[in-house]
Amino acid sequence: MLRHVTAGVDGSVESLTTAHWAAGEAVRRALPLRLVHAWKWHPRPPASVPGDSSEHAWAQQTLNKVVDSVRTAYPELHVDARLVSDSPVAALLASAVETEMLVLGSRGLSGVAGFIVGSVSQRVVARSVHPVVLVRAGRNPAGEHPAGPDRGSSPQTATIPSRHVVLGLDTRHPCDELIEFAFEAARHQGGALRVIHAFSIPSADGADLHAATGAGAGVLAVQERDLVAALRPWCAKYPGISVTETVSEGRPATALVRASSGAALVVVGRRIRESHLGTHIGPVTHAVLHHVGCPVAVVPHA
């Protein structure tokens, strides 16, 4: 199967940003880019469709504009465009099955600001079996990758500034899929990975055990040891990656939001499981998606 990076687009400014970020990532990984636009026929076309155009023709024109923009910025990048007659969620989930990663916008595919419950992006994240990267609306596509035909060299040879990757890791569930994705992302970004592990020390009466008994230092040492042990085989596999481990007591989401400043990407996991309420992404990942400004990769795992 041909490996590639896929971006879901809908013609909005936000999805154009998403497409350019995905193009830059495809360049980093030396992979082709696939752009997917979903549309469905409606008895009464939405107001966004001009009266002198069919829904299909308008959808094709919308996709062509994004493709032209990306090809202008990355003339040597292979771009495959797919117009799919289906609902956005169904089309994107189908695309995610056969791609290295699926890149979506935080607002463009839902029409509502932010990562809200029920949005297309969030529903895809909750159900995808492959990594999904969410790019927040309004970010400059050149913020992480150069874009534009005047940057002085081809996208395959241009020097893209290196920025670190942040991985949120729970030492109780140090799954291979999540760690490998983060190390690979750091390798493509230039070789720096910051691993964040935050934990809490529960007590029977709700008191701060760290302050009350001084046991926090011992627990911290154990947590640090567990994190180093979880990363040791991966550091050996990726000797060129500069890894920094940070262990702290507190809320994982708060630690990740703080660490995300200046990062190229934050990587978090999503356990693949069903509850009586259906699929979900977990409280830490949910909070990160709401509060982190840089792109966020959500990696599903068992």
What attributes does this structure have?
302 residues; alpha/beta; Rossmann fold; ten-stranded mixed sheet; elongated
How many whole angstroms does the radius of gyration measure? 21 Å
CATH superfamily heading of the largest domain: HUPs
CATH class wording of the largest domain: Alpha Beta
| Count of individual helical segments | 9
Structural class: alpha/beta
Largest sheet properties:
10 strands, mixed
Percent strand: 15-25%
Low-confidence stretches: 108-118, 140-160, 209-213
What is the 3D form?
elongated
**What's the CATH architecture name of the largest domain?**
3-Layer(aba) Sandwich
**CATH third-tier fold name of the largest domain:** Rossmann fold
**What is the element string, with H for helices and E for strands?**
EHEHEHEHEEHEHHEHEHE
Mean pLDDT: 81
End-to-end separation in angstroms reads 23 Å
How many structurally independent domains? 2
Total strands: 10
